[in-house]
Write a structure and sequence with these properties.
CATH topology: Lipocalin
CATH architecture: Beta Barrel
Oligomer: single chain
Low-confidence stretches: 1-21
Mean pLDDT: 86
Number of strands: 9
Shape: globular
Distance between the termini: 39 Å
């Protein structure tokens, strides 16, 4: 079984193949707690909304520094040595994808990334929190995800049209936001027995090494704002078609406290990846 965490070179490759824009909005920090030295105090208590819930609003980025977790009974934090309990066909597909060096990673094709890819992407994300909806806006490929907090149930698996970002509903368990998602646009295992069809390139990439997921995947995420500066996310995948058992990993995001905003990332603007890989339309 292959490592879960994408090689850093893959993320750098895709980032380098689209010409970035200069910073747009000037920094505008609001309500950032400060320490005695005048610097942002990331260890300050987490802010709360008017109804007393933890407030996840802000700009966040993947954080690989010391673990800020306040409990010892946490799932393993995502690292380079973690492997996945793949079904044989999924392991074969992952090896083929990895051997291509990211040639068909959806990130490089200007397609939506997989749910774990977005969590570990080096580009920031923005959380907008309201009582009935939580929006996650990803700078990478301008992804948009809606988490409904209005009491609705997930649609039955296989009933609605699959979405790239899946269908997501959330609820509060104390100070923990629990988000359940299903009906993702995933890989059809029967279509990859004799090699992955070209029509499935970019579909169902859990990470940048190409670990697949199918339309049967149910995803459960548990978000905790440990303090002002850190967001702890438990990420559980239950996909019996691709994996022999459910598994859970953990990711930490850190707030961007300087008041920066997302850039306008239009993936096909100045896109060079298809040209450099010989697949640009003529």
């Amino acid at each position: 079984m292959r490592s879960l965490f994408a090689a850093a070179t893959s993320a750098v490759l895709f980032g380098a193949l689209t010409v970035p824009l200069a910073a747009q909005w000037p920094p505008h920090p609001v309500g950032v707690p400060q320490g005695p030295d005048g610097k942002p105090n990331l260890a300050a208590p987490a802010p709360r909304t008017v109804d007393g819930k933890p407030d996840f609003s802000g700009i966040w980025m993947i954080y690989n520094g010391p673990d800020p977790g306040d409990r010892a009974d946490r799932p393993p934090r995502l690292s380079g040595g973690l492997s996945l309990p793949m079904q044989p066909w999924a392991a074969d597909l992952q090896r083929r994808r990895a051997a291509e060096g990211g040639l068909n990673d959806p990130d490089g094709l200007c397609l939506p990334q997989g749910p774990l890819q977005y969590h570990i992407d080096p580009q920031p994300l923005k959380i907008v929190q309201t009582p009935t909806q939580i929006l996650i806006i990803y700078e990478s490929n301008y992804g948009l995800r809606t988490i409904y907090m209005d009491g609705r149930k997930l649609p039955p698996l296989g009933e609605p049209q699959p979405f790239w970002h899946g269908y997501s509903v959330g609820r509060w368990e104390g100070d923990t936001l629990v988000v359940e998602s299903n009906n993702f646009r995933g890989v059809d295992p029967d279509a990859v027995k004799n090699g992955e069809p070209s029509s499935f390139h970019g579909v169902g990439w859990l990470d940048h090494r190409g670990s697949p997921y199918t339309e049967s995947m149910k995803l459960t995420e548990r978000f905790r704002r440990v303090n002002y500066g850190h967001l702890d996310i438990e990420f559980t995948v239950d996909d019996p078609k691709a994996y022999t058992k459910p598994f859970t990993v953990r990711i930490v995001q850190q707030i961007v406290p300087d008041g920066s905003e997302l850039i306008e990332f239009i993936c096909h603007e100045n896109q060079m990846f298809l040209k450099l890989t010989g697949r640009e339309r003529r």
